[in-house]
């Protein structure tokens, strides 16, 4: 069964197109830290999609340097019902505001954001 994706107020409700995500990231870049007042971010130019009622950013698409959007969407993990963070990959850890768990997989260890 594919998981439900839902904003905070429930006005946006989507069923994911697959039962499991391609990957799960804990991104530590400064862009998302500032955007969401949280410790995680991706650091790319993004097309963002928000709930018109509660304002929550539900998903986004990274934009390539030529202006084309990548062929997949990134869903904010907190909006995915029952998402497991157990094997999440940590990226842009140089900007981490919280300790990266020892032994965690880091796709871009210490990368600049």
UniProtKB/TrEMBL annotation:
Transmembrane segments: none
Name the record gives this protein: CENP-V/GFA domain-containing protein
Keyword annotations: Lyase, Metal-binding, Zinc
Gene3D superfamilies membership: glutathione-dependent formaldehyde- activating enzyme (gfa) (3.90.1590.10)
Keyword Zinc appears in the UniProt entry: yes
Domain CENP-V/GFA: 4-40
Originating species: Fusarium oxysporum f. sp. cubense
GO MF annotation list: carbon-sulfur lyase activity; metal ion binding
InterPro entries: CENP-V/GFA, Mss4-like_sf
């Amino acid at each position: 069964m594919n998981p439900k994706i839902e904003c905070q107020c429930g006005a946006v409700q989507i069923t994911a197109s697959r039962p499991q995500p391609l990957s799960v990231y804990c991104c530590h870049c400064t862009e998302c830290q500032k955007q969401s007042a949280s410790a995680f971010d991706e650091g790319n130019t993004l097309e963002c999609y928000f709930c018109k009622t509660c304002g929550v950013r539900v998903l986004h698409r990274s934009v390539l340097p030529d202006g084309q959007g990548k062929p997949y969407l990134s869903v904010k993990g907190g909006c995915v019902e029952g998402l497991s963070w157990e094997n999440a990959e940590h990226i842009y850890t140089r900007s981490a505001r919280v300790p990266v768990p020892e032994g965690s997989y880091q796709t871009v260890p210490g990368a600049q954001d």
